[in-house]
Every structure is written in structure tokens, then in C-alpha cells.
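ugh ok fine here u go
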Amino acid sequence: MSERTSYEPGVPSWVDLASPDTDAAAAFYGGLFGWDLQSAGPVEETGGYGMFTLRGKQVAGVGPIMQEGQPPAWSTYIATDDANAAAQRAASAGANVIVEPMDVMDAGRVAVFAHPAAGVLGVWQAGRHTGAELVNEPGALNWNELQTRDVDGAKAFGEAVFGWKPDDQAFGGMTYTLFNVGDTGIAGAMTMPSQVPDEAPAFWLAYFTVEDCDASVAKVNELGGSVFGEPHELEGVGRFAVVADPHGATFGVIAGEPPAE
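structure:
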């Protein structure tokens, strides 16, 4: 089902981009995915936050860099029915809560925390805004993947905070961990590739569905982004590549189904 109006607690429900130039970001992602940019409300209330839409449906968010030294990056948010309790569990599991639970007008309630093994994650307690209204179709979110040097630590954190059940599987000659809510795989984790700089912390990749991975990679280059290696084919998953926008925010494009499906 590509249209969504709700998310079960523990399921990734939203992604957003922190960018030093939201207009340039709108041009890049509009050219790549066909997204339009809509304001989320008055700047004095939203801080300049906006919604990327596809066919009128909200698919992702974008906002300006808020702190000096903050890198351009995509962030993943996990649905929760109690942001305060989720933040408390995260802190008890060793995370640093970097955005204390707070209301975002009537849209919902948010908290953000960072963990050495599980990276930076947000939680979203839905109000008027329930999350991505389209998923798993071209131009929409497909999958969320953690890259970490401590998969076991990430498993423990996910179980403690979200109730995720890890399931190690063989994918493309490597071990890939699926995080499950019930019997459904909702996100994944893998050991960070050796080419990633040693100083890079654990991080999440948001993958977006495309019709043609190779054509999308060519479009990324044309629009001024960068590509990390050639597209790869993975049996049972699809053809994918990891890329970055012109400001360096990394994400994935994939022509295929989410790994869990």
C-alpha cells in the first residue's frame, strides 16, 4: 500500500532534510524526484520548515541548518505514541537527547537523540501530521538503513527503545540485520563500509524508490550531486545506489521493493 494515513509505533514514519539552501534543495530534488515544495506555515512559527510533496501528497520535509557546524543530512523519525517516554527510554539506553520532547504546533510532538551505535534518530508522535503520505513508489520513501560499527549495540538499543526484533540475514555475501515490528521488517542495519572515514559516526540512510536506478544516478550527476560507486544489483531487493545532493546530504535510490518485502 503506497498511500498511508497512520503508522504503528516503532515504524519509520518520516524523513527530513537539513540543508543550507532550501531553495537549491527544492530545485535538486524536484529535478530528481518531481517533488514540489510547500511551506509548513509562517516562518516565525516553523523556522522555515517546508514539505516536499508528490502529486499533492507529503513525502518528506526540509528545513534550514539550525546550528553552526550542523552537516547537511537526511534524518529518520520513528513513530511513537509517547515521545516523552521514548526519549526517556533512549536516554536510559545510553543516548544523548539532543532535542527534548516538544510540540510542533498542532502537527505533533518530536524528540531527537543520538546513540554511539544507533546514530541520530527522531521520534514523532503524530498530531495533525501523521507522516509520509506516500511510500514505496517512485519518488517516495522506500527504506531506512543504519550503517554502524556496532551492529550488536544498535540491536540492543532498538529493542530497548522501540521494541524492535532483530533478524540477521544473508544479503549479497554479507550479514544484514532486519529490524522487525511484529512480523514485518521496518528498517535495516549493516556494518559500516570500510571506505567510510574513521571519524564518521553511525548514520541512517533514507532510500527513495525510482523507476530506473541508472537513469536516476545520471540525473544526480546532471543536477550537481555526487555518486558513491556504480549502481549495484541485489537479488530479491533491486538495483540501488548511494548518492548525495550538491550540499553533501547522503541518501539512496533504489529500483525495487523494500528488503522486508
